[in-house]
Amino acid sequence: MGDFNLALVIVAIVVCVIVFLFNVYLLVNYQHPDDANQAYFPKFVVVLGLSVAAISILMLPADVANRQACRHAIYNGACNLTLPMKDLWLAIYILDAVLVFFVIPFAMFYYEGDQDKSVGKRIKSALIWVVTTAIVCALVLGILYGLIGEVDFTVRHLSSTTTSFPNSWDFSSGQPCIGGSHQCSAYSANAASEKTWTMRTTFPEYVVALATIVGSVLFSIFGGVGIACLPLGLIFSFIRRPKAVITRSQYIKEATELGKKARELKKAADALHQEERSGSKGRKWRKNVKAVEKELLQLEEDVKLLEEMYPQGEKAETSWALTVLGYLAKLVLGILGLIVSVAWVAHIVIYLLIDPPLSAFLNEVFIKLDDIWGLLGTAAFAFFCFYLLLAVVAGAMMLGLRLVFITIHPMKWGGTLMNSFLFNVGLILLCSISVIQFCSTAFAYYAQATAAQEIFGHTLQSLRGIKYLYKYNVFQIAFIVLAGLTFVYYAAFGWRRKKPSGRFQLSS
């Protein structure tokens, strides 16, 4: 068993290094040219945040593997050599909460500060916002922890009479206790034996629990929408693809129109910037900023579509062939994603919403995959957890383009500003806690007897004031309802070519 644990530690270290390098690669390739060779602190926060989110998702499969390390122990103390997963869970999620509520807001306030101000003034302004947030959060957490920071476990009070030590023991299903009393049997005990055992939870566990609640609200909304729009968006992107190359005259006409609209958009953006400098940032100003952001994104999509429809250069034919292959890849990935999404929704209904569950479903699939090869079930388990995170990001993007009160922060290859990076990293970090809690509940049979089950199962679902949200499956029901509504929306309107709300669009 010691060799197994050593191998698990080595794998964990290697995976952490790979995750860090991959996130650096994402940052380098997604960053906007304007942020090259500057904004190093926000970049460090982005890489750290993405690494923490990815590692936290991978910790649940590691927790399962860590549990299996001493399942077949042949000597005493073998389990003492395993990883201290509960301490690692609490450490990673305290770091998660600090990043989400303090570090990332500071980095965003600093990055978005007026560039005309000195560095010192920008740091001071960002610190004022963050310190104010920290004081408010500390007061709220302290008051809540002092008033309702307790867990209520429902237990049965069992007892049995005493008797002289017998020469032989005679126990059976009909005689489970000493002395003829059946009070020591939880199955035969009467309802009056139920008691509530109250104890105060630790402060780190309480912080994780409240962060999970906040993340669960966002997860239910964005995840429910994203679980449907992620695969369907790829499929309908293939349906709306350009079918053929346009002529040169059509290209010139469209390019001229786009250039004209780009100048109008720049004029509108300059006017909004002047209003910002004058201090008139009211509701109408924010609404106009949102409208300009939408039009800018649509204009960029139109430019990309025009370039696809009229490839230029010496390798124009190759470019068109790659475009066609790209849309075919979207179709394939969309179909595979749709299968995974349907499996997720079916599993939630079968295993979580129906009591008692009709089947363990995906839990049994993972166990059978583990029987085929030790890490196959664990890898499939990690994939389903990661897919939920992707669904959250896809849902946030979709709602951000349609709802006024949600800020748009698109991720574009070679064109993502640091504030968009920081926003999406904060969203991923906040929802990653809820994804882990959701997965530990949805795959409770597969992930039983793990440290995650102890934190996110027993403690969280028994926490005073919060347990009813989990008792009545509020988040799971909201997730399924939003997934169904999104599916209906895409079935009705997804096949249509997207059009902007304003004037910036390709002419017909």
Automatic annotation (TrEMBL):
One term under GO cellular component: membrane
Coiled-coil regions, chain positions: 255-309
Pfam families linked to this entry: LMBR1 (PF04791)
Principal subcellular localization: membrane
Cell location: Membrane
Membrane-spanning parts: 6-28, 40-60, 90-111, 123-148, 206-239, 331-354, 374-401, 421-446, 474-493
Membrane topology value: Multi-pass membrane protein
Keywords on record: Coiled coil, Membrane, Transmembrane, Transmembrane helix
Name this polypeptide is given: LMBR1-like membrane protein
